[in-house]
Each structure stands twice: as structure tokens, then as C-alpha cells.
Amino acid sequence: MSAEATSPGAPIRRRGRPRIDLRRLGRVALLGPVSRDRLPDAIGHVAEAHRAHHPDADLSILHRAYVLAESSHRGQMRKSGEPYITHPLAVTLILAQLGAETTTLTASLLHDTVEDTDVTLDQVREQFGNEVCYLVDGVTKLEKVDYGAAAEPETFRKMLVATGDDVRVMSIKLADRLHNMRTLGVMRPEKQARIAKVTQDVLIPLAERLGVQALKTELEDLVFAILHPEEYERTRALIAAASARTDGSGTTPDPLAAIAENVTTVLREAGIPAEVLIRPRHFVSVHRVGVKRGELRGTDFGRLLVLVGEDADCYAVLGELHTCFTPVISEFKDFIAAPKFNLYQSLHTAVVGEDGAVAEVLIRTHRMHKVAEAGVIALGNPYAADGTAGTQSAEPADGERADPTRPGWLSRLLAWQQSAPDPDTFWTTLRADLAQDREITVFRTDGGTLGLPADASCVDAAYAQYGDEAHTCIGARVNGRLATLGTVLSDGDTVQLLLAEDAASGPSPDWLDHARTPAARIAITGWLDTHPEDTRSPHGGRPAGAGPEQPSQGHSRPGPRPQETAAGTAAAPDGAATAVVDRPDATVRLAGCCTPAPPDAVTGFDVRGGAVTVHRLGCAAVTRMRSLGRMPVEVSWEDDIECRVTLVAESFGRPRLLADLTEAIATADAAIISATVEPPSEQRVRHTYTLQLPDPAGLPALIRAMRDVPGVYDVSRARRPATMA
């Protein structure tokens, strides 16, 4: 808030955003307030910019805020020599140009009064109301006298908590930091670098997440100039050289301008009202493109921006461009159908011009463009029912705000910061969290969603959904298939987290290798710190094995194998479940890949040696053999026979699991011929049973009974990999 000085280099101007003359405003500000019926000249720029977005705005409150700010800051000077009042004026102008509403501008004018003058929060509340007071308090620094080295991280913690209730707090902070970065040059180089590093690690990611691209891009360039001066100068020289080649005095035509003209013609002929602009890239963007491609092309210094009236027009423009130009399909992205987590909406594509030049194109409505530039600032006061008052929207059932300014990332940040009381832990974790600049959405099986950073795993999903209850998580299903907790999730995955019934279970130290979110890492570390004696188990707080009635690890019995019989029949071991083919001399085998048994629908195929192999109709081997032209052989089951089948039960280890499964099997009137329990792996246990049923029709009921046993998540027929005979 109080960083001072001059620019680190040549000012980086943005079109349509004129800079105020600080020295002229300083001279006007020194004259003091004017009569009540006239707005002070010193905030004329602010009033003009504000009325451009809000024609009916009441400027009287800005008048009163300016009078208080000017009188309280009178006599204070910035290190650059201007009166201090020029700083809140400049910050307020930045927000006014982005379309901030009157309450935000009022708080912006007063944002340093409580911190740097004798004005108190009670005075602000009395004169301007609770909303303005809350915003001013949110951006007021904590005193170093009280907090020492923890003052900066604790100030950001306070600010983020305030942002959770009103994002306008962070809007003011971002504009405040932008003006301070613009005027940082007279400070010592080491202090410039420290402020620039915090801006890079914390403020720029926050600007990105709140969608305020106009502030983010200029902050990036200012930080780039301070932290990487050599690369900055090289990039500045490249941009200057490209501009010199393509301006009126140059001899090289601008390839981007030529494509823009062709695009304009195409859209006009198609009857699509559109505005086609050339949008220059900022310094950091040009530098990134150069690093990515190695050599910059003439069209790499900017992009085309096509602005239309309606959402449908965006897709109409896209269709015309892809019809009349050669599109670069790999560059197409639809952020209208699937907006980014920071409210950003646009269509991205790239097309090839007549001379082979490739131009990137952004297609959006005027409303989308406003939100793309100003993010949450463009929403005005999102908590007001009528756009002017301060009524906040109701909380939905899942705790997320109904308005779009309380996205999932902010809720997660506010949740984990409560578990990080140590300032150093909070500061380090905050920077790491904000460094994850992409977000994915995964779906829960109950219909809800989870917002997670890119590369998040099932461990992160567990803690995002269940909090500390995720300590007992023992597995997951991703898109219906069993997955390890370390499985990395992708955007759009469906995740079902599986929890153990044993509340004493806990996470494994290995989980930290897969945790990406601060909430997961803090929770896991906290549990491990309070349960040091339980970390000896390789599978978490408790060993993953089952109860005492299970066989010891490392010992298993081989499962049953299908058996051949002569004279056109085949039976499972011990003579049960006989399959019959109409070939008296044929040898019949029951396939091990699908283990057919009554009452399965089956078919057979001739294999080498004159034998017939019997498969279930749904077996993948049947499809493959038919695709190879193999003719099926008709197969039937003998009547009035018992059914013998091999089932595999997948379960989570727990005491009495084997006893409960055995009881379920006995209740279904099935006899256990043999059983195998494999050693536990990642808290999961695999049981293989060969069972004999008095009636084949009872098989579905038996499988359902086994699946109903607590801890069992799947029961299926035994399979072996199919082979082509």
C-alpha cells in the first residue's frame, strides 16, 4: 500500500487506459477541498472514467471520500516527490477504468487512511457505512510492531479471509499493488526485488484466479522488468524492431493486419456484425512465445480479437473462419461452453493466411471481453440484490456462495488456511497453492462436483470431499474402475471414494507423495505427527491385512482349472457342470478366460487338435474368433446337474472378513470346494472361491449376497487371459 517511487523502465502503456499526470494532480490536491456543490478537479479523471461505466452513479460519496482522504493525508509525501494523495487517486482511477462500482471506489480513496493517518475504522463506518469500512479494513496492513516478521504473511491471511466474504477487498489490493509497482524505481534494488517476488508469487496468481487480466498482464511486465532485466530488454528490443518494420515508415507489411482485413471482409460478406481488432501481446507473452518457438514470426507479436453481440455469433464467426481459412485444429479451445474457473469465456482458434502466416484469433462478445479484462471487478457489487445495495446472496447447501465470485479455489484456500496457524507454513503453502494455475472439475457419484488443481490425485479428492474423514479412505473408483489413491485425475472424471469402517485407520506417509492440495498435505502431516507409532505400517495408520482368521501372507492354494472329458462333453473339476456338443468323438474344453457354467449362454469353437473350446457368449474371445471367420459350434448344458463356479471377491482388509464371506456363501446354499486368499496389497484383499450350487439359477443371488458383505466392493467370475488357439 505504501510502496513508492518511479517506474523500473519505460512505462508499459495499454491502449485505452491513459495514465494520469501525477504531478498535475499533486498540485491540484495541494489546493485542498472545494465547495460542496462542485467535485474536486483532482478526481475529475476518476469521475469521468466512472461515469463511462455507470452513467447514473451518485458522485457525492466520492466527493466526501476525497475530502476525508485529502485532509488526512495532507502533508504526507511519497518518495517520488508527489503528495501522498496522488496514490489513492491513482488506485481509484485504475479501478474506475475497469468499471468498479461506487462503493469500491469510495473504499479505494480511503484505503490508506486507517493505516497511515489518524482516521479510525469507526470514523469510516460512521461516515460511509459498514460496506466501505469492511473493504478498508480488509486491505489495511497489520503492524510490524505487533507481528514482527509475521506481519506480511498475516496481513495476506487477513486479506484473503476478508476476500472470502467480499472479493472487492482483493480488487483494491491488486490495483494498489499495480500503482506501487509502476512507481517502484527509487527504492533500493533489493527491496524492489523482494516486492516484485511477492507480486509474482501471490498477487499475479490471485489476479489470474479472479480473472482481472488487465491488472495481471501489466503486473507481469513490471515484475519481468525487475526480476529479469536482460530478458526484458531483449524482448523490448524485439517488439520495438517489429513495430518499426510494420508501421508507416517501414517497408514490411504487417502480416497480422493483412489477415485482420481479410477476416473483416469475410464476416461482412457473411452478414455477421463484428469488430476485428489487433490485440498486441504484452512483454511476458511475447517472451513466452519466443521461448516456446525459438524464433518469433511476424504474427507472434499480437492476436486478432473479434467482438460480436451474442453468444451464437461467436460460433457463427468460428464457422466462417474455419470455412474460408485453413484452421490450425490443435489451437481450437472452447471456453464459452466450458468457461475457465476465473469466469473467462472466449473461443480460441488459429488460422493460416494467404501467405502462410498463422494468426491466433480470440472470439468473444463485448460482455465476455469486459469480464475477460476486469474479471470480478466487471460484476459490480455481486452481493447486492439490485446491483447497488449490500445484500448478500444466500449460502447454498454445500457451503459454496451462490455468486460466481466465491469459486472453489477460494473456498479451499480459506479452509486449509485455518489448519495452518504457523505464519511460515501458511506463507509457504499459499505460494505453492497459487503456483498451481490450472483447475479441473471431477464428478462425485452423488451428482456433486469437486474443483481440484490440475494433476490432483484421488488423495486430494478424498480430502476435498470428506475433510479429516478421508484418513480412513482405502480406495477409489475412477470412471467405474478400481484405482489406487495415487491415481492422477483428469478433467471430467467421475470419482467414488471408498472409506473403511474402522475409524482408527489412518493415512500412509506415502500419501504425501500423491497429495497436491494444501488441505490434503496439511491433514496428512497433522495425522502422522500425532500418530508417530502408526507410521511403521507401509499401508498407513493400520496394517492393510485382514483379521486373524485369514491365511498368513505368502501362502495361497492354486485355484481350480477347467477339465477335459471325452465323447463330446466337458466338465469342471470333479465332474460338475457338463457341456455337450453334437460331436461324439470331440474333446470339449471349458475356456479358462470366462469360466462358463450353467446357466450361462455358451458357444464353442474348433481349436487345434480337433477339440472344441466352450466360451460364454459375452466373452471377448468369441468376438475375436468371429472376426477371424471361425464358425461357432452349438453347445448346451446337461440337464439336472449341479453348478460349479469359481468366483473372485475383491475387498478391503478388515477383521472377520473371511468369516462374514463364508457365512454369506453358506446362507446362499453353496458349498465351498476350495478357497484362496492372496496377501493384502494396498489395503485390498483378493479372495478366490470354487463353489458348488445345487441349482445354477441361484448364481446371481449368491453373487449379490457376497457383494453385500461390508468391505466387499466387487464379486466376479474368475477369468484368465484369453488365448487364440
Q: Regions with pLDDT < 50 over 5+ consecutive residues?
A: 1-23, 25-39, 386-405, 536-567, 571-576, 721-725
| Alpha plus pi helix count | 24
How would you describe the shape?
globular
Q: How would you classify the helix and strand content by structural class?
A: alpha+beta
User: What share of the residues lie within helices?
Assistant: 25-40%
Q: Major sheet, described briefly?
A: 6 strands, mixed
Mean pLDDT: 79
Q: How far apart lie the N and C ends?
A: 78 Å
Strand content: 15-25%
Q: What is the total tally of β strands?
A: 23
Supply Rg. Answer: 35 Å
Chain-wise SSE layout:
Elements: H1 22-30, H2 44-53, H3 60-73, H4 86-97, H5 102-109, H6 113-116, H7 121-138, H8 144-147, H9 151-165, H10 168-182, H11 189-209, H12 213-227, H13 229-246, H14 255-269, E1 275-280, H15 283-293, E2 302-308, H16 311-324, E3 326-327, E4 333-334, E5 347-352, E6 358-365, H17 366-374, H18 408-417, H19 423-434, E7 439-444, E8 449-453, H20 458-466, E9 473-478, E10 481-483, E11 494-499, H21 518-530, E12 563-564, E13 569-571, E14 579-581, E15 587-590, E16 602-606, E17 611-616, H22 620-627, E18 632-633, E19 635-637, E20 643-652, H23 657-667, E21 671-677, E22 684-693, H24 699-707, E23 712-717
Parallel strand pairs: 2-6, 7-11, 15-17
Antiparallel strand pairs: 1-2, 3-5, 4-5, 5-6, 7-8, 9-10, 9-11, 12-13, 13-14, 14-19, 16-17, 16-18, 20-22, 20-23, 21-22
Helix pairs in contact: 2-4, 3-5, 4-5, 4-10, 5-7, 7-10, 9-18, 10-11, 10-12, 11-12, 11-19, 12-13, 13-15
